[in-house]
Amino acid sequence: MKVLAATKNRGKLGEIAQILGTSGITVVSPRDVGIDLDVSEDGLTFEENAVAKALAWHRASGLPCLADDSGLCVDALGGRPGVHSARFAGVGAGDRENYELLLGLMEGVRTRSARFVCVVALALSEDTVITAQGQCEGVILTAPVGAGGFGYDPVFLDPASGKTFAQLSDEEKNAISHRKRALAALQEKLSGMGIAGS
Predict the structure, then answer these.
(1) Terminal Cα distance for the chain, rounded
(2) Which CATH architecture does the domain made up of 2-192 adopt?
(3) Which ranges in the chain belong to alpha helices (H)?
(4) Distances (CA, A) of 10 to 14, 28, 29, 47, 108
(5) With 0-12 CB in 10 A as exposed, 13-18 as middle and 19+ as buried, what is 81?
(6) Is 69 known to be catalytic?
(7) Cβ atoms within 10 A of the Cβ of 27, count?
(8) Among 38, 42, 68, 69, the one annotated catalytic
């Protein structure tokens, strides 16, 4: 089965192709099919945004389409920034502005538990959309550490490794990431439905 990955991010595309490729799924990019689309992410949940993107790209391409929505949920902030993670400090704000705002709001807060959450949605048709979720538990530091990654990676500590996501190699991060777990859960659902072999 050929699936369009609704992302222009090469790293994300490679990760999706690697994980789902073991199911006999061929992942293609928007560039491969000559489509460029911007979909508004105004849903109240990660799932709403992922489903909206998957359906929009499916309608534009006619192909089964996979989309995801992800973000950081901090317990002390009632789950914020959540679906607003990418624009937490305002539209057009960069990664540093976003995590600096987060650190400011967390100043003096002792409970610093948080998780990265990812929901993937695969639109097979207008009426058939399969979703799966993955998450990765961690702790918010008081200052950024590490030069790699993106987004909130420099302030998100993985307790198991004792490193922030910005200190982990791409291989280490991808082995435990919320996106990897969501895609693995989707793969299991597809295998259980007989849509793709394992």
Answers:
(1) 13
(2) Alpha-Beta Complex (3.90)
(3) 10-21, 30-33, 46-61, 95-105, 170-176, 178-192
(4) 6, 11, 9, 22, 38
(5) buried
(6) yes
(7) 20
(8) 69
| pTM given for the model | 0.90
Q: Where are the domains of the chain?
A: 2-192
175 to each of 27, 39, 172, 179, how far by Cα in Å?
19, 29, 5, 10
Q: Give pLDDT tens digits along the chain (198 positions).
A: 899 999 877 777 877 887 777 777 889 999 999 998 888 888 999 999 999 999 999 999 999 999 999 999 999 999 999 999 989 999 889 999 999 999 999 999 999 999 999 999 999 999 999 999 999 999 999 999 999 888 999 999 999 999 999 999 988 988 899 998 999 899 889 888 877 644
